Amino acid sequence: MHQITVCFTPVQFPYYHYEGCNAVAIDILRATTSICTAFLNGAKEVIPVSTIDELKIHTDREYMIAAERDGIKLDFADIGNSPYYFTRDMVEGRTIAYSTTNGTHTINLAAKCHTAAVGAFINISALCRWLEAGDRDVFLLCAGWKGRFNLEDSVFAGAVAQKLIDTGKFTTICDSALAAMDLWSLAKPDLSGYIKKAAQNERLRKINSADVIPYCHELDLTDIVPIYRDGVLKAL
Amino acid sequence: MHQITVCFTPVQFPYYHYEGCNAVAIDILRATTSICTAFLNGAKEVIPVSTIDELKIHTDREYMIAAERDGIKLDFADIGNSPYYFTRDMVEGRTIAYSTTNGTHTINLAAKCHTAAVGAFINISALCRWLEAGDRDVFLLCAGWKGRFNLEDSVFAGAVAQKLIDTGKFTTICDSALAAMDLWSLAKPDLSGYIKKAAQNERLRKINSADVIPYCHELDLTDIVPIYRDGVLKAL
Question: What residues of chain A lie within 8 A of the CB of B183, using their CB?
Fold first, then answer.
């Protein structure tokens, strides 16, 4: 039996055992959903960049720049962080340097594990098949929001944990995994309804971007699992 | 309407707004339950001490020393961290210098808020009356376990948040408060049964101390709310 660990925020990452695990970076609203959308629409690669200074290094290259802070597109970026920007016209065949408030830092932390993938509701079944086939302990790292717990990432972690446990090959002794599964059990019957109370819902509403929320909670729009290797995410 | 914030671990504390709040330090298994028990049994004061080095300063004074790390009593301490040690014979009229793995550091962090109290299931109703009378925003700080989320503190935070919201004088836009209340809604019908899956249950079992768990989840054994002022906890 393999163990499942859930970590609710990047600031707690150093306090968990993550060595040797296959990891999933989770930022449902919106970074990891946007990345899965980019690959669904034919992006070649995504380079997750934690800081704005690092991102500026990429502006003289031919990469596309996708970047936001607090939901707002940075002025030197080509596009912001809504999955709706990552259309086939925009991203097909391209390398995207990508930086967001919480999500890309989370991906770079998850990369300290054995292998890191990017997860979202829109690729959840493919992600779980990859984790099951990986035959290792699993570490689910939520982006949260600036050091704080958030509901949507935690509920997603609970959904993944429950799916893995249902295979009979995984178990958990991690309180955050148990709590996440309990939250998922409450959210599952009406996921979009449940997520309405999340703080990020209100933040996105304030910047007129709440229309992405239903899309970010749709299941299995793609079978692609973006995998991190040598600083770059590529479609598995 | 006053806001309720829940912070699941001390490592996340700097990322939340806590200024001006009345705070509650929460370490159900076992520090805050033990402190409430000490006052129930007539202790005069409790000095929460974060580190072992700081605690050693107190060994030449006439204070009683209560201290553990990872559940085991430190060799220079008079007693460890089980609430069962804090009997009337041991503690009545005494000042106790107290240090535990997670709990006392949490109390000292909570003290950065406007006023900090110590909360446990055994004083939950009195605690909620104090918070309601306090007429301020409320910050519920869980000790967790070494930077990790734990179930028992989070469920307690949810119980307090729900009681406060039920007064009609409080609300929340904090995802961790919403999650904590959801966990409480699941735990409430059979609190002792729900908490059996918590990791701390297993840790206490391994050191033959699991017998305190039912006691730590009993409701309202005392009306005393320990309040922090100038480095010392006293009964309100």
Answer: 179, 182-183
> pLDDT tens, A16-72?
999 999 999 999 999 999 999 999 999 999 999 988 888 888 877 789 999 988 888
A154 in B contact zone (CB under 8 Å) = yes
What would the mean pLDDT of B134-156 be, rounded to a whole number? 97
Please list, in sequence order, all residues whose beta carbon lies within 8 angstroms of the beta carbon of residue B93, skipping any fewer than 6 positions away: B42, B43, B44
Asked if residue B236 belongs to a domain, the reply is: no
Q: Cβ distance A24 to A117 under 8 Å?
A: yes
How many independent structural domains does chain A possess? 1
B23 touches chain A (CB under 8 A): no
Where in the sequence is the domain holding A225, given as residue range(s)? Answer: 2-233
Three-state SS for A171?
strand
Tell whether B142 is within 8 A of chain A (Cβ).
no
Which of B148, B198, B199 lies at the smallest CB-CB distance from A12? B148
Prediction ipTM score = 0.95
Question: The CATH number of the domain where A193 resides is what?
Answer: 3.90.1560.10
Q: What is the pTM of this model?
A: 0.96
Tell me whether strands A232-235 and A138-142 are parallel, antiparallel or unpaired. Answer: unpaired
B126 within domain boundaries: yes
The shortest C-alpha distance from A72 to chain B (Å) reads: 21
Answer yes or no: do A151 and B183 touch at CB < 8 A.
Answer: no
Residues B169-225 have pLDDT tens digits of: 999 999 999 999 999 999 999 999 999 999 998 898 888 888 999 999 999 999 999
Q: Per residue in B112-123, is it b (16+ CB within 10 Å) or e — as a string? A: ebeebbbbbbbb
Q: Please indicate whether, in this complex, the C-beta atoms of B175 and A15 are within 8 angstroms of each other.
A: no
> Is the Cβ pair A11, B11 closer than 8 Å?
yes
The strand order across the sheet containing B2-7 reads B72-73, B64-69, B95-99, B45-48, B232-235, B226-229, B115-119, B22-26, B138-142, B2-7, B170-171
Nearest to A179 among B9, B151, B175 (CB): B151
Q: What is the pLDDT of residue A180?
A: 98
pLDDT at B49 over 80: yes
What residues of A are in contact with residue B157 (Cβ under 8 Å)? none
Q: Specify which residues B2 forms β-bridges with.
A: B170
Distance from CA of B147 to the nearest CA of A (A): 6
Q: For residue B235, tell me if it sits in a domain.
A: no
Q: Would you say residue B189 lies in a domain?
A: yes
Lateral strand order in the sheet of A22-26: A72-73, A64-69, A95-99, A45-48, A232-235, A226-229, A115-119, A22-26, A138-142, A2-7, A170-171
